Amino acid sequence: MTGKTLNRGPFPATRMRRMRRQDFSRRLMRETILTPSDLIYPMFVLEGKGQRESIASMPGVERVSLDLLQQEAKHLSSLGVPAIAIFPVTEQDKKTLDAKEAYNPNGLAQRAIKAIKDAAPEMGVITDVALDPFTTHGQDGIIDAEGYVLNDRTVETLIKQAQSHAEAGADVVAPSDMMDGRIGAIRQQLEAAGHINVCILAYSAKYASSYYGPFRDAVGSASNLKGGNKFTYQMDPANRQEALHEVALDLQEGADMIMIKPGMPYLDIVREVKDQFGAPTFVYQVSGEYAMHMAAFQNGWLDQEAVTLESLNCIKRAGADGILTYFAKYAAERLNS
Ligand SMILES: NCc1[nH]cc(CCC(=O)O)c1CC(=O)O
Ligand SMILES: [Mg+2]
């Protein structure tokens, strides 16, 4: 090193740091701005009154009865969160092999829809169309003697479930089951029944992910599943082109919105789907993603506010028009403050 002069090279005409130097110019060049309007809050609902249960693997998330759901809906509405996605916790004795509780007009999900609409009519209500909360084995469909999930037999039941949600007042039905042809079948049924303005949010590229563990604890399907998996219908995490194929089919069949799930490990898929189709694209930051963030926050290893908002902002930057996240309420509170 001694005796050598520093070669500075040509004087830089472009200094990228000029625009980063002050807050005003950082704000002017910011490409992605997260707002409460980007967020959808998934909520677990329970029977009863004044009931509130915590979920060990999802600190800060609770299962709540319908009266508390109504209070939450009003609060979320005042924060500017546009929609709630509801997930019923079905009592064990209502689970059957044919999952008929899924389309009970007085079922918990159907009453939850009405409860939200009564309390906060402006709140968008999104329902989960899938059979796993209603089957004794925790699979998303009707099974044969070998335990294989039967596609067309399951779709027959999903149609009834979606229609019952529409009749209860759902704005959006969201099939999360990954049966083939269900979007077209549900669309046809809704049209025939006069529910022409009910939207379909298709979980189009839903991967067979191990990040769903805490959700299965939350809805109580983990114990029913008995260590089983969903590899015969959900997608292999190794696949990319298959996701594009799935999205293309769901859009052809009449989906209004499509979803990629999980979120953060799958943002390459989000970008590609958004670029290729340009349709309203949603991302589910799932229970396992929430759990690992919370574990780090609770240990003091990561800063909760900064990391939460960064994670959501990055999902939006990747191409999401909206994000289902258990951080929706927290993030909207932070964004409003
Ligand atoms: N139809 C089931 C369903 N709907 C939403 C989730 C997962 C959501 C999450 O992990 O937050 C799952 C779990 C699964 O497929 O087993
Ligand atoms: Mg499909």
Can you describe this structure?
With 337 residues, the chain is of the alpha/beta class. It has a single domain (35-336), classed as TIM Barrel, CATH 3.20.20. Helix content is 39%, strand content 16%. The protein contains 12 helices and 10 strands. The chain has helices spanning 23-28, 66-79, 108-119, 151-168, 182-192, 213-219, 222-225, 241-253, 267-277, 287-298, 304-317, 328-336; strands spanning 39-46, 52-54, 62-65, 83-88, 124-129, 172-175, 199-206, 257-261, 281-285, 322-325. The protein has an 8-stranded parallel β-barrel, surrounded by 9 helices. Strand 5, helix 4 and strand 6 form a beta-alpha-beta unit. Helix 2 (66-79) crosses helix 3 and helix 4 (151-168) packs across helix 5. It is globular. The mean pLDDT is 96. The ligand NCc1[nH]cc(CCC(=O)O)c1CC(=O)O binds at residues 128, 130, 132, 140, 176-177, 212, 215-216, 230, 286-287.
Q: How many DSSP-defined strands?
A: 10
The domain tally reads: 1
Structural class: alpha/beta
List cofactors, ions and other ligands: the ligand NCc1[nH]cc(CCC(=O)O)c1CC(=O)O, magnesium ion
What's the quick description here?
The chain has 337 residues and is of the alpha/beta class. It has twelve helices and ten strands.
SSE diagram, text form:
Layout: H1 23-28, E1 39-46, E2 52-54, E3 62-65, H2 66-79, E4 83-88, H3 108-119, E5 124-129, H4 151-168, E6 172-175, H5 182-192, E7 199-206, H6 213-219, H7 222-225, H8 241-253, E8 257-261, H9 267-277, E9 281-285, H10 287-298, H11 304-317, E10 322-325, H12 328-336
Parallel strand pairs: 1-3, 1-4, 1-10, 4-5, 5-6, 6-7, 7-8, 8-9, 9-10
Antiparallel strand pairs: 2-3
The structure holds the ligand NCc1[nH]cc(CCC(=O)O)c1CC(=O)O and magnesium ion.
